[in-house]
Amino acid sequence: MNKDELLKEYVETFGEKGQDVFFSPGRINVIGEHTDYNGGHVFPAAISLGVYGVYGPRDDKKVRLFSGNVNGNIVEFDIDDTTVEKGERFWANYFKGMITYLREKYDNIDHGFNLYIKANLPSGSGLSSSAAIEMLMGIILKDEFKLDVDRVNLAKMGQRTENEFVGLNSGIMDQFACIMGKKDSAIFLDCNTLEYEYLPLELGDYEIIIMATNKPHTLADSAYNDRVRECHDALTKLQEKLDIKALGELDNDTFDEYSYLINDKTELKRARHAVSENQRAIRATKAMKDGDLEKIGRLINASHISLHYDYEVTGKELDTLAEASWKQDGVLGARMIGGGFGGSAIAIVKKDKAEEFKKNVGKTYRDKIGYDASFYDAEIVDGSKMI
Question: Which one of the listed residues 78, 143, 174, 251 is annotated catalytic?
Fold first, then answer.
C-alpha cells in the first residue's frame, strides 16, 4: 500500500496533514494451532498483509478513528472513555482496549489523536486482523508518547484487550507474532513461559501460499470459547493426579496413561488435540533445523486431521481447501490456520507449481462450495513499526 496515498486519504478524511504512518502485519502459523491458550508451543510468522495507520495528534481529549475499509462514519470518543462499543462501532474496541490498558500504566497519554486505518488483510480471514490492529495501536502509542514499554508487554496488553475488553478467551500467539515478527523467520514460542527463538523459514524451492475461504468467521461469536472451556475442564480432571498447570506440559505418552481421568468423549478429544499438536509443533521446528521439509509437510497434514476430528473446528470450506491441496503435484503439506470455522488455510507448494496449484484448488473449491477462494503469496516480514 502506498504511503503517499495513505497520507492523502488522511487529509481527505480529517482535513489536515497526518504526522506518521505505521504498519502492523497479520500472521500465519506454520504449526501449533489452538495450543497457545493451552500452554503449548507455536511456530508463527508475520506476513506482508496487514493494517496501516496514519496518526495525527490533537490538542484535546478526542480520539477520532476512521477505517478506509468500512463504509461508516468517524468513530469518536474521549481518551478516558473505557466503555465497550457495540454494534457498528464494535471494531473500535481493539483500539479502545489498548488505549485503556496503556493509560492505566502511563499517565502521559494525555491528549487525543486522529487515526486513519486501512488494511490489505482480509477481515475474518483467520490471519489475525484483530491482533494486527491491537499491535498497531500499541506501537503508535509507544512511539508517539515515548512510552517505556517493550514489545512483549505490548503483546500481553493486546491479549488482555482480546480477553477482557472484547470477550474472546484467546492466547498470546497472534499479538506476539504481529509485534515480534522478523523478516524471513518464524518464531518458535513457548506460550507457557514466553521463551522464544527465531528460526529462518528456509523452504528452498517451496513457498507458502495462503488460501482464504472467504467465509468470514467471528471467533467471539463462534465455538472458540467453548473449546477453551472444554480444555480447561479436561486439565482440571488431569490435575487430580498430575502436577501440571497446562496441557502443553504433557507429552503424548503421559497423556495416554492418564487419559482415563477425563472420562468425557468431547473433553478427551479436545485435550488430545492440544497435547498432540504441541508435540507436532516441537517436532516440526526440529525438522526445520534439520532441513527435513517433507517431514514438516507430513506434520502439517496431521495437524489438519487433528483439528478436523479431535478439535472439530475445520468445516466444509477449510476441509475442501486442505484435501484438494493434498492431491496436487508439488505440495508438501496443507492445513487450516487460525481459529477455524472459516478463515484461511496454508499450503507449502513448489514454486514452479504455484500457479497450477491455485488454478486446480480454486476450481475444486468453486465447484464444491459455490464461490471462489482467494490465494495470496506470503512474504515474511518484520513486526509492527513506523514506516
Answer: 174
Q: pTM, whole model, 2 decimals?
A: 0.93
| For the chain, percent of residues with pLDDT exceeding 90 | 88
Mean pLDDT over 245-271 rounds to 98
Cα separation, 360 vs 304, whole angstroms: 20
374/108 Cα distance (integer angstroms): 44
**According to the model, what pLDDT value does residue 68 have?**
93
User: Apex CA 322: angle with CA 321 and CA 328, to 5°?
Assistant: 90
Pairwise CA distance, residues 260 & 74, whole Å: 55
User: How many angstroms separate the CA atoms of 226 and 372, rounded?
Assistant: 30
Q: How confident is the model over 318-353, as pLDDT tens digits?
A: 999 999 999 999 999 999 999 888 899 999 999 999
Active site residue 174: yes
* Whether 341 contacts 368, CB under 8 Å: no
Q: Kindly compute the dihedral angle of the four CA atoms of residues 240, 241, 243, 248, in this order, to the nearest 10 degrees.
A: -90
- Letter for the amino acid at 375? F
Handedness of CA 260, 261, 264, 265 (dihedral sign): negative
Neighbour tally for 242: CB within 10 Å? 16
Q: Say if residues 96 and 165 touch (Cβ distance below 8 Å).
A: yes
- Residue 67 burial (CB count, 10 A): 20
pLDDT of residue 219: 56
